[in-house]
Amino acid sequence: EVQLLESGGGLVQPGGSLRLSCAASGFTFSSYAMSWVRQAPGKGLEWVSVVSGSGGTTYYADSVKGRFTISRDNSKNTLYLQMNSLRADDTAVYFCAKSQGMIGRWTSDYWGQGTLVTVSS
Amino acid sequence: DIVMTQSPDSLAVSLGERATISCKSSQSVLYSSNNKNYLAWFQHKPGQPPKLLIYWASTRESGVPDRFSGSGSGTDFTLTISRLQAEDVAVYYCQQYYSTPQTFGQGTKVEIK
């Protein structure tokens, strides 16, 4: 059974940093791209970033480019999102999601429960 | 970026009746080399993660009831719930994965009339 468990969310001041983790199990982690998708309070889903199965290819939404870094440790079956220079509009539930493929044009077939990030002074 | 626009924003349907949601993309998500539409539909209930219902515009994900169906090609797509059940109350999103950034529609809230 595929399981994705996010952690690391919390309250942070504007300009601060936070690192989210997503522990994966139930599938061959290195064979699939992984993504982060967020949902701000009362809003819809927003794709944030994706990393290929090997970790060598990454893409970001313009809204987070230069501030967020996605990475993965395939030896630990864990996905990360390092978030720096956080702003109030980064407040959201952050979901990690498993892609249907290793790289390229695939949607996400499994999602974690999400972790809440609140940016406020 | 490809803009995804859903309609309506919300709809109320009687139990056992049909619900239809439209999704339009600002450019085609049909890849000519394999004739596949890179369009997915998700169901999202409060406090739960989004659930993949449909991919390639019309392929039902394993375990999804057959009352859910997807259709369309190019820029115009439809999600149909043939006989609405109480457990289908949720927000539904279309998503294109033809190009990065992947983009979602704004969501359609389905309720019971």
Keywords:
heterodimer; A: 121 residues; mainly beta; seven-stranded mixed beta sheet; 50% strand; globular; B: 113 residues; four-stranded antiparallel beta sheet; 0% helix
Q: Can you walk me through this structure?
A:
The complex is a heterodimer of chains A (121) and B (113). With 121 residues, chain A is mainly β. Chain A has no helices and 11 strands. Chain A has strands spanning 3-7, 10-12, 18-25, 34-39, 45-51, 58-60, 68-73, 78-83, 92-99, 108-111, 115-119. In chain A, strands 2, 4, 5, 6, 9, 10 and 11 form a 7-stranded mixed beta sheet that branches. A 4-stranded antiparallel beta sheet of chain A has the order 1-3-8-7, with no helix packed on it. In chain A, β4 and β5 form a beta hairpin. The model of chain A has no long low-confidence stretch (mean pLDDT 97). In chain B, the strands form 3 sheets. In chain B, strands 2, 6, 7, 8, 11, 12 and 13 form a 7-stranded mixed beta sheet that branches. In chain B, strands 1-3-10-9 form a 4-stranded antiparallel beta sheet, with no helix packed on it. Chain B has no helices and 13 strands. The A-B interface holds A 35, 37, 44-47, 50, 59, 61-62, 95, 100, 105-114 and B 31, 38, 40, 42, 44, 48-52, 55, 61, 91, 93, 95, 97-107.
